[in-house]
Amino acid sequence: MEQFQLQEVLVITDLESLRVIADPLRTQIVEILIFQPATVKQVADKLGLAPSKLYYHFNMLEQAGFIVMVETRMVANMQEKYYRAVAYAFELDQSLLTFHTDEGRDSVNTLLNNILDTTKEDIFRSFQARLLALDKGSTEGEKRFMLTRQTNQIPESRAQEFMEKLQAMLVEFSQEKPAEETAEPLKYYVFTVAFYPSIYYTGEEPDEV
Q1: Model confidence at 209: pLDDT above 60
Q2: 51-86: buried (b, 16+ CB within 10 Å) or exposed (e) per residue?
């Protein structure tokens, strides 16, 4: 079978599609399927869940065009279906991110909830999986974990500088696609970042138009 080629980026252009992928569990399924084809059971094993809990979510993702079946194999008279994400990255069309309409506010709320909830669930699962591995005799490794929230007052010129540095780091991080063979084993790492102007209400009456 011809090897499936992932798109670099899939742009989400409608709220309905955003709602499909915005579920934290479905987001994690897609993230796993970015790097290699897998069956429902294989993904379930990675997430510590029963396969029966994932079939509905796989179906939704496939119907919405976020994953695709790339291979079938017969194992003990049973057909195994292998799925793959359709792109390395998924971005939201900027036209959906606006506070000028109810749909725009819904899109922003859906996006924020997905990023924050998925990150939270991923961190909790990672802690639980690590504890289970240690209980089974794994060696305690070096901890690489960072979670922080900081606020500061900075000039606009520095804000632009920080944005450019963060974007450069994200590009470098996203370009680290695994090769067929590597000198060392690969591990999943997640990069969640939010950098934005925190704007407070002034408490003053707005100027008359």
Answers
A1: no
A2: eeebeebbebbeebebbeebeeeeeeeeeeebbbbb
